[in-house]
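Long-time lurker. I teach an intro course on protein structure, and each term I like to show students one example going from raw sequence to a predicted 3D structure in token notation. This year I'd like something fresh instead of my usual example. Would anyone be willing to generate the tokens for the chain below so I can use it in lecture? Attribution to the forum is fine with me.
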Amino acid sequence: MAKTEDLPYFLRPSGLVLIVGLLTALKIFAAANAHLVEDEAYYRIWGLFPALSYYDHPPMIGWWISAGQAVFGDTVLAVRAVVVFSGLIGSLALWRSATILFDRRTAGWAVLFLNTSLLIGIGGILATPDAPSVVFWGLTFWTLAELSVSRNPNWWLLVGLMAGFGLLSKYSLLFLGAGIVLWLIWVPEARRWWSTWQLWAGEPLRFFAFRRCSTGTTSMSG
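-- Reply from a regular --
Happy to contribute to a lecture. Here you go:
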């Protein structure tokens, strides 16, 4: 593993904090001054009326917007505030995942590429269901990385919780769940987890979150 002092400054934790902080400041400025796109204007209404679910999407983006409105009022920045700051959480989760799976050099480059990509640089300020979906996808991956390295089965509880929040963001997180199941079946070393109670305890956390969301959607469509 590369030592911190062997890395160029921009790949060290302090350099990454500075770079990501500056980019986040630019995102905050853009988020506060750029007009809402059509989808965001629609989701703004969700924030004004928080619910367990909505007609065409799970509720997480509505909850995020509602949290922003509680702090910043009914403003453009409020709609995007949690989305912007969630990028910091995603960057930290990515850095930690890459550090324990590879090394700090790889982690530094991963964080830089993430934050300087057009998808995150521009799309990272838009308040759409993709924003919390990406964050919770990354957090689920982080918990799986911790599980794989530490071999501590208690991480399954957090895996289930993060995946459940992901399903409250966008139903496409079901594909991540399918990938986890395939990993548990295909990789011989991973099959040991089938016999741990934490794996099965984590599943109800994910299912409960999804069930509450789907129940809300069904009642609205009916």
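Some talking points for your students: Confidence is low (pLDDT under 50) at residues 218-222. Residues 2 and 104 are 6 Å apart (CA to CA).
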